[in-house]
Specification:
OB fold (Dihydrolipoamide Acetyltransferase, E2P); single chain; four-stranded antiparallel sheet; Elongation Factor Tu (Ef-tu), domain 3; 3 helices; 33% helix; alpha+beta; 323 residues; elongated
Amino acid sequence: MHNRWLFLLSLLGVGTGLAGAAFFAIHGKVNPPVFNPAPNPYERGIYANGIIESAQASGANVNVFPEVAGTVIEVLVQEGQTVERGTPLVHVEDSLQQATVAQQQAQIAVSEAQVRAAQATLKTATDQLAKQQRSYEADPRSVSKSVLDDAGNAVRVAEANLAVAERQRVAEAKAAATAEALLAKYTIRAPIDGTVLSLGVSVGSYVSPQGTLDTYTRGATPIVVMGRQESTLAVRAFIDEILIAKLGKLQRLEATMYVRGTDVSIPLEFVRVQPYVSPKVELSNARSERVDLRVLPVVFHFRRNPSIELYPGQLVDVYVRAR
């Protein structure tokens, strides 16, 4: 009787195991991908990571750094705003430099007074010498030779004093111009006609010629990034160093860009190559992310696609036709 129950339990366990295996072996319907992965449009194509940039004749987007250090007291533009060259962007606290300029201007006023005083002294000495000379010419006995010599010496001393005062005035004027030029640097202005792509500061931020501290990466970043928001954008593609030999003639490079998250593809036109193979750095700007891989940056450009909005800094997939 005991063996019979063991046999039944064994059969039940085997049946349960087979039923479980059959159930879990049934695969559910796989959902289709949200978008198709970027296909290689060429028979022999080289894949490269790319980043969209504003179109520039040379270099990439324009990074704006201040030439002075201080606390930001006013941000005069907004991200996405189009500005002309010379437009004030950020104002740094400048009260100390304003006091320096006021002091230099006051010193100029003192120098001007010293020049006028030296001019008056010279005129008095010159007039006195002229009187002595006329008296001597009328009657040599009326003025002694010693008095006449002293009058001439007084004129020469007055001339020297005037020359010193005039040089001092020039020096003070140059110092005031330098102070005013430095004061102007506390207002950071747009270096180009373009669009404010990114603002890295707010009122109260501390800036220096190294930029400002980024809240997230904890690294130094430019206070403003500007670009040219025109009908044409650029793409900087990073070609792996082991694939450089597969590139054809650079002037005839063909490439296609795929926008990530979409099925949109855009043909690219070759612009230039940055002829320096550099270490690849991830786009967070952190030096700790530098790796051994080296890449050749190649710049293309394309016309904006009205069906999709694209922005500088956006990552894309690029395929370049290999020879």
